[in-house]
Amino acid sequence: MKNILFIVLAVFVFSCGNVENSKEYKELQARYDSLAAVSTGKSGENAELTRTIEEIEANLDSVAKDQMVIGELNKEGYANQKEKIDAMIAGINSYMEQNKAKMEALEKKAKKAGKANGALQKMIASLKKQITEKETQIVEMQSTIQGLEVKVGELNQTVAAKDQEITTKNEELSKKDNELVERQKTIDNKETELTTGYFAFGTRKELADQGIIKKEGGVLGMGKVVKISEKLDNKQFKKVNIKSLSEIKLGLVKKKKVVSTHPENSYYFTTSGEEVFLKISDYNKFWSLTKYCVIEID
Fold it and tell me: Which residue has the higher pLDDT, 97 or 294?
C-alpha cells in the first residue's frame, strides 16, 4: 500500500508543477501518513503476539526439562531429594501460572483480530492443547509425589515407633543392669561380710585396757575366768580376709593362749626360729564360731 502511494505521489508531482501546496497533494499525503501509522501499529502488535507465544513455548520447554529432572531425582530417593523436588515443583507451578496469564492476554488479542488471522488462531489452539496436557501431567506427577510423601511419612512413623521401642528396651535393660549392679553389690557386701575376720593379740592387761577381754565369775576376786567382751570395737582389731589368712605371727613370746572360741582341730601353734606363729589349718572351721580371734601372750 505504501509503495502504491509513493508511485501515485511521484506521478502526481511530475505531472503537475508546484503541487506541494495543492489541496489534492495535501489530502493524499494525509492518507499516506494514516496508512503508514496503521501499518506500523499492526507490525508492533504482531511483534508483541510473537513475543508472547515465544514466552509461552519457552515456559513449556522449562516445565518439560524440570519434569525430567524430577524423574531423575525420584530415582535417587524422594526422602533424600525432597527439598530439591519441592523447589522444582514450585517453579513448575509458577511457569504454568505465567502461561495461563499470557494465554488469556493472547486470546483477547486474537479476538480482536477475528478470523482474519487464521494462523494465529491455530497457534493459540495448539498452545492451549499443550498447556492442558502439561497440566494433566503435572497433576499426575504431583499425585505420584504425594504418594511418595505418604510412604515416607509411614516409614518415618515406623522408624519413630521402632526408635521408641528401642528406647523402651534400652530403658528396661538399663533398669535391669542397675538391678544387677545393686544385686552384685549386695552379694559382694555379703561376701565381704562372710569372709572378713578380726584378730588381736597382746598381754592380758593390754587386751583388758582395750576392752577386748574381761574377767567374770569367782569369789573375792579368786577363780575369775577371762572372756571376750560382748561389745567389741573393730578399730581395736586387725581386719583380715579369712580365706587368705593362713597364719598369725605372734613374735617372741613365752606363753600364748587363744581366748576366743575356735575348734581345737582347726589351728595349732608353731615356732620358726624363736618366733611363734598361730597356724590356721582349716579356715572354715576356725572362723565358724566367731569372726574374732583374740590371743593372749606373755
Answer: 294
106 vs 193: CA distance, rounded Å? 100
Domain 20-168 adopts which CATH fold?
Methane Monooxygenase Hydroxylase; Chain G, domain 1 (1.20.58)
Sign of CA dihedral 108, 114, 119, 121: positive
Domains of the chain: which residue ranges? 20-168, 194-297
Half-sphere exposure of 147 (CA within 13 A, CB side): 7
What's 75's DSSP letter? H
Name the more confident of 96 and 156.
96
Cell of 91: 517453579
pLDDT, one tens digit per residue, over 248-281 is: 999 999 999 999 999 989 999 999 989 999 999 9
Among candidate residues 113, 118, 126, the one with its CA nearest the CA of residue 53? 126
Beta bridge partners of 251: 276
CB 211: neighbour CB atoms within 10 A?
Answer: 12
Predicted model pTM: 0.45
Backbone angles phi and psi of 23, in degrees to 5: -65, -40
| Strands of the 292-297 sheet, one edge to the other | 238-241, 196-202, 292-297, 256-258
DSSP annotation of 76:
T
Separation CA 93–CA 138 (nearest Å): 9
Residue closest to 88 by CA, chosen among 57, 67, 59: 67
Q: Give the C-alpha separation, 177 to 180, whole Å.
A: 5
